[in-house]
């Protein structure tokens, strides 16, 4: 009876005899007996298969019986291991982006003063990103991801953690995500930096989403299908300390080159320790809706979308009401190696709380509109983003920017779209590069970019640029990029005397006023 129970058999002389042989005999004898029983009609094929699977088979038989139950592939998430039924998956991957930049027309700056006389844009190379991640699925309905960027970790106070979340998918197409993840805002921000057309994000996205750190802690509900998606999130500040220190006068300095202004905590450990007067976190509600109202195929469609956000600001003050830390600023760079924030509002909270001449940014709102068209190898994309400021000393100032560009694949590919996020996905060449006539995929692009951080009491400057790009994809996981960027105009002049402003542009920013720098940017990228 124990043998019957172990094998899941019902009582019966024939099956009982088979069970006894299985428990006492060798695997070869077991199979021979089953072959004889099924041949003589004592058991049917279903019973035969059941007994065979539960038998104590030899190693070779076990290998044969389980062949095809799992797979290992190099996929979009890296080296992926998973069960064929989709219940369990695990992936390890990463990305490396090695950048170079060379400049001209930024030397002997006519407006440079003092220490900034020779402080032109720097040529050089840099490891822009170096990330490793682990992600996967367990019990089919749960996804997870953890990613660390080594260029943002040791040596800076901006934590290297990017994604760190769990997502529940049991109610597909609905999903619930908790942890740290990207805010649902902007087409270009929603697109992984691995799949951007140009090396750097455009200035408006850079200033209003990327530099404040789009990775934030919170909870998000989302819905997606082939034609449209929607997401809404309640979020707080991101993991780690700020990449910024500010004094009471509103002057802010990057820490060890960090460019992420992501937390108001005054402690060295940032959000890992919010005691000792750090105060509460800032909070925001952010949402995005995007879809494809015209859809002919995955290579012919129109994308439109909109984003909105309301964010409170945590301003920390000492016991005597002197400004200590927090606030916020908006800044944008143009280069990819020399990432000096030539446009920079400075901290928008400054001075003693309630004192004459002080400013306190209480909250700001963001709105974004986006559109893109794909028609075979040709595509176009554009976005407009505006940010409204509210608080003591502000009069509904509006900071804004927009960009537009077009791209064309010389080798006939189309931009790939990821419906679940309403963003761009990995390019797969029609034929990988090889020595037998394979060229990989080649893409050319041209665009215009504008950002205005100057309105009312705020003077962070404004600029407009034009750029062209050439991208080569030898295969789906390697990309070489080259961009030429020309600054059409940059206005970083100080506000006229007698006009009250929060901050004037710094000496370095003023040095570039009315200049037209040119730069060549390069990137070699591999992700796995």
UniProtKB/TrEMBL annotation:
Residues 1-28 form the signal peptide. Pfam families: Porin_O_P. It comes from the Bacteria. Keywords: Signal. InterPro entries: Porin_O/P. This is Porin. It comes from Methylogaea oryzae.
